[in-house]
Amino acid sequence: MAQLWGGRFTKETDQLVYNFNASISFDQVFYRQDIAGSIAHVTMLAKVGILTDTEKTQIINGLTSILEDIENQKLPITSEYEDIHSFVEATLIDRIGDVGKKLHTGRSRNDQVALDMKLYTRDEIKNIQTLIYELMQTLHKLMNEHLDTYMPGFTHLQKAQPVTLAHHLGAYMEMFKRDYSRLTDIYERMNYCPLGSGALAGTTYPLDRELTASLLGFYGPTLNSMDSVSDRDYIIELLSSCSTIMMHLSRFSEEVIIWNSNEYSFIELDDSYSTGSSIMPQKKNPDIAELVRGKTGRVYAALTHILTTMKGLPLAYNKDMQEDKEFTFDALDTVKSCLALFTGMIATLTVKKEAMANSAKNGFTNATDAADYLVNHGVPFRDAHSIIGQLVLFCIEQNLSLDTMTLDQYKAICPVFEEDIFEAISMKTCVERRNTIGAPGQEAMKKVLKMNEQYLSNLV
């Protein structure tokens, strides 16, 4: 058992205790961040005169060689060490001798692990944003292609009013824009450097924390050493944001599953994003959408886990905080894989425009426009509402739609109707007359698409 804190102890740690306490099985993913933080720390120590330039160079060269050997798979990270910090420091001492023992001057594992987690989380925010950006680019492309693909809009999962596929996809575009923005907010709030906070009370060494923060790309140092080593708010915020991303993906997946069903047949998923049945040869299952929907619970669990872990912890660092990692790593990996797969799935699906349009026509989605027609011809709205209700009932009894009724049938219920009713309730008219910003009409949608294009170009 390789550990760096045995001086005060007279007995070896029990193996079960050691295994229970160790974190190297999962925190080894921090090796890049840990080495980067150590290089910045050593650079600062030399700048303030705690190390000589020669010592700095020796240590940095040693750390760089460790990084290269890990990357090239020449140096395995083994469970012989308690955590990644111990592994890096012990390996450094093995390679360059006693000067390697000066690496840890002026810092604690508490501020070291806080730094590593922040660096890792910061990188993951950017990775997730890249995937959201690619999803938004795909949505933007689909929206441009389907400005005139008419479909029913729903409330209560009942057909309500006609919209376009572009408009429907635009709702998800707005959700993912908010997701991207939330991640930016988290990045801005968390991007302050805890290194130099020590175990909880800083250090007597004349550290230049501003320099260390600058070298690592932070806006500056954190301002309270106790908070610095015990803050996990940014993880909670990130997992909350990831949960919202997954909720959006899950809602979208539910619609893809419904649209892909035989009853709807609005879309067909590409073979490369579908699976079959081991017993039913006709099946083509939307497994990717179903798994995205299912994996949402994993991310929710990670958020609940970290909230529960943190809720009773006094200041400052407590070993409970080691539990911030495994669930978080899993959640971040889940979100990234779901975003990538979902983007590929919707980019390759086939839209059945005629089926969508027919569904809108057969679901009385133009009933509101028929009522508006009467209002525009002098009928009070409440009376118009009642008249259209009678029309719908008549259609249901006669197995008709508002589009397939004859003018005589219209006039039998209300003589105000004229030949122009058919133009007034066409899918095209119903949609295109709605041109206030945010509505599905092409004029309004083209304005939104232009704004989205500018938005996406600003993210590059």
TrEMBL record:
Residues 7-299 form the Fumarate lyase N-terminal domain. The keyword Amino-acid biosynthesis applies. Its EC number is 4.3.2.1. One of its GO terms (biological process) is L-arginine biosynthetic process via ornithine. GO terms for cellular component: cytosol. Belongs to the lyase 1 family. Argininosuccinate lyase subfamily. GO terms for molecular function: argininosuccinate lyase activity. This is Argininosuccinate lyase. It is found in: Cytoplasm. InterPro entries: Arg_succ_lyase_C, Argininosuccinate_lyase, Fumarase/histidase_N, Fumarate_lyase_CS, Fumarate_lyase_fam, Fumarate_lyase_N, L-Aspartase-like. It catalyses: 2-(N(omega)-L-arginino)succinate = fumarate + L-arginine. PANTHER family: ARGININOSUCCINATE LYASE. HAMAP family: Arg_succ_lyase.
